[in-house]
């Protein structure tokens, strides 16, 4: 009976938060104990991805951050599509707040780009 509940938890949607929490906890511990110099040097490892003739060369921390943000927004888009077409956000009145947040996110991105366009592609 206990194993069944444990297995049901890991199959459900709530278990997706365990890995980021565990990774944040490990990073917090490594940064705040004697291993901080190893941890910081590990994050600065130079990585390179080749896509045809256009290589991407960044430190590991930037590559991981960019990849996780891309996956996050990809999954967010799928979730929004599901909510709009199959769930609670079918009507225009229910989706108004969502549209306001989407427009605000786009405007915040444009504002960030305007302020930092000289530093992004250096």
From TrEMBL:
Transmembrane segments: 21-39, 59-80, 92-115
Places the protein is found: Cell inner membrane
Keywords attached to this entry: Cell inner membrane, Cell membrane, Membrane, Transmembrane, Transmembrane helix
Membrane topology term: Multi-pass membrane protein
Residue runs in coiled coils: none
Listed name of the protein: Uncharacterized protein
Record InterPro entries: Na/H_antiporter_dom_sf (IPR023171), NhaA (IPR004670)
The keyword Cell membrane is assigned to this record: yes
Cellular-component GO terms for this entry: plasma membrane
GO biological process, one term: regulation of pH
Molecular function as annotated in GO: sodium:proton antiporter activity
């Amino acid at each position: 009976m206990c194993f069944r509940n444990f297995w049901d938890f890991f199959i459900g949607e709530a278990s997706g938060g365990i890995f980021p929490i565990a990774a944040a906890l490990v990073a917090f511990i490594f940064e705040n104990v004697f291993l901080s110099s190893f941890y910081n040097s590990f994050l600065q490892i130079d990585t390179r991805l080749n896509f045809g003739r256009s290589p991407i060369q960044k430190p590991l921390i930037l590559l991981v951050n960019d990849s996780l943000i891309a996956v996050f927004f990809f999954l967010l888009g799928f979730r929004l599509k599901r909510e709009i077409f199959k769930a609670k956000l079918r009507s225009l009145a229910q989706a108004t707040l969502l549209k306001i947040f989407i427009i605000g996110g786009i405007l915040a991105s444009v504002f960030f780009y305007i302020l930092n366009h000289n530093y992004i592609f250096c």
